[in-house]
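Exercise 7. Given the encoded structure of a 323-residue chain, write a plausible sequence.
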């Protein structure tokens, strides 16, 4: 194990190669992709890495990894628009197995560029793939990697994660009703404190303060996974403070404020329950997709009714839910 930690070593001796590649997380070999990873991770030269990733793609050298890694480096260099075009232009050279990870990179790039509509469309396409059984290459779980560690992700967890991202995208468009719908669905599948905070914010934006308070208190009372994380607890406390301030301002701003809130609460409690995805026009997605999500929910939680008493009188807001 001699000299393996030398980050400047271009060609480690034969007995040191394995240690060198493990420590620095670079592949072995001498093709353009390997040189690109060396430039990226060892030499810390992103521009040189991008040039070499291009060469790897054109040479057909580990194209799946080269395109994805190049897009990530471009994003770090504030070249997200260029990265988007690269993925769109060259993803047809990549394997079927690589398409899902390329979609994940595209979603991050769309976020970076503020392309919310494109992000929403891609997230909905990923949900449709889950319903059709095309996600994870037809398997119930996949291996993911974060901060150098591998872990298993289930279809349920992935569905909830995608719905959470879709909810956040709707929030960027200030479409809080649509955001609420998908956050509610995500929480039914795989609840956590972070999505609960986002759902609470959606309700605050709609002046539905009592519902928001109840959800945020669930976080502070430790009733949800992730509630023990200080970041989630701090955010829940901040949102509660924002809630109290907005509610006070609302009630003091006009003598009709209190009466309006009472009428809204009466409306919410008096209307019949509707399906979480009430009609195809809510999201401009096909009938079979919406029915498929409900079918998945029934399979995952067969004792739970499809008609959920959480979206009373939502049909009157269909125009706000449409994309």
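Solution.
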């Amino acid at each position: 194990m001699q000299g393996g930690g030398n980050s400047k070593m271009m060609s480690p001796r034969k007995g040191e190669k394995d240690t060198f590649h493990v420590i620095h997380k670079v592949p072995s070999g001498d093709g353009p992709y390997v040189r690109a990873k060396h430039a990226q991770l060892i030499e810390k030269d992103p521009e040189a890495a991008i040039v070499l990733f291009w060469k790897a793609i054109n040479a057909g050298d580990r194209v799946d990894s080269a395109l994805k890694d190049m897009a990530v480096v471009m994003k770090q260099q504030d070249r997200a628009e260029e990265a988007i075009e690269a993925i769109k232009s060259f993803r047809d050279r990549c394997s079927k197995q690589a398409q899902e990870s390329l979609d994940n990179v595209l979603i991050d790039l769309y976020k970076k560029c503020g392309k919310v509509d494109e992000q929403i469309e891609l997230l909905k396409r990923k949900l449709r793939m889950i319903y059709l059984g095309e996600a994870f290459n037809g398997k119930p779980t996949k291996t993911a990697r974060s901060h150098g560690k591998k872990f298993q992700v289930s279809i349920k967890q992935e569905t909830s994660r995608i719905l959470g991202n879709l909810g956040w995208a709707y929030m960027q468009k200030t479409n809080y009703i649509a955001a609420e719908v998908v956050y509610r669905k995500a929480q039914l599948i795989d609840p956590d404190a972070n999505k609960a905070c986002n759902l609470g914010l959606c309700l605050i934006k709609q002046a539905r303060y009592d519902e928001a308070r109840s959800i945020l208190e669930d976080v502070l009372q430790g009733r949800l996974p992730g509630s023990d994380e200080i970041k989630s607890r701090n955010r829940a406390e901040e949102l509660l403070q924002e809630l109290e301030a907005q509610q006070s301002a609302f009630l003091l701003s006009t003598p009709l404020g209190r009466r309006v809130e009472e009428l809204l609460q009466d409306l919410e409690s008096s209307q019949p329950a509707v399906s979480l995805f009430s009609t195809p026009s809510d999201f401009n997605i096909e009938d079979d997709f919406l029915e498929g999500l409900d079918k998945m929910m029934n399979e995952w939680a067969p004792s739970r009714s499809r008609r959920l008493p959480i979206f009373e009188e939502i049909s009157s807001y269909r125009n706000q839910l449409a994309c």
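Remark. Residues 154 and 246 are 39 Å apart (CA to CA). Students should compare their own answers with the one above.
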